[in-house]
Amino acid sequence: MIDKLKDFFYREKVRWVNRFIYYLIILLLLFFMYGFNDASAGSYIYNDF
Predict the structure, then answer these.
(1) Sequence-separated (6 or more) residues with CB below 8 Å from residue 43
(2) Helix 2-9 crosses helix 12-34 at what angle (to 10 degrees)?
(3) How far apart are CA 1 and CA 41, in angstroms?
(4) Considering the entire predicted model, what is its pTM?
(5) Contact, 5 vs 16, CB < 8 A?
(6) What CA–CA distance (Å, rounded) separates 23 from 17?
(7) Which 8-state DSSP code applies to residue 10?
């Protein structure tokens, strides 16, 4: 049973989809953290550079 699961998760398409979802979640979290402020409302991610 475990060997079947390993075979499934090591398929190239499954690994690609997992990475895609992982980076999409990171991107969405960053958007929700910094995306809802307008120009005059507090800090923005690039203001300190």
Answers:
(1) 37
(2) 70
(3) 53
(4) 0.58
(5) no
(6) 10
(7) T
8-30: string of b/e by CB count within 10 Å (b at 16+)? eeeeeeeeeeeeeeeeeeeeeee
pLDDT per position as a tens digit, 2-49? 898 888 888 889 899 999 999 999 999 988 887 765 555 556 566 555
Distance of alpha carbon 4 from alpha carbon 11, whole angstroms:
11
Which of 28, 34, 29, 32 shows the shortest CA–CA distance to 46?
34
What's the CA gap between 45 and 34, in Å, rounded?
Answer: 7
Length of the chain: 49
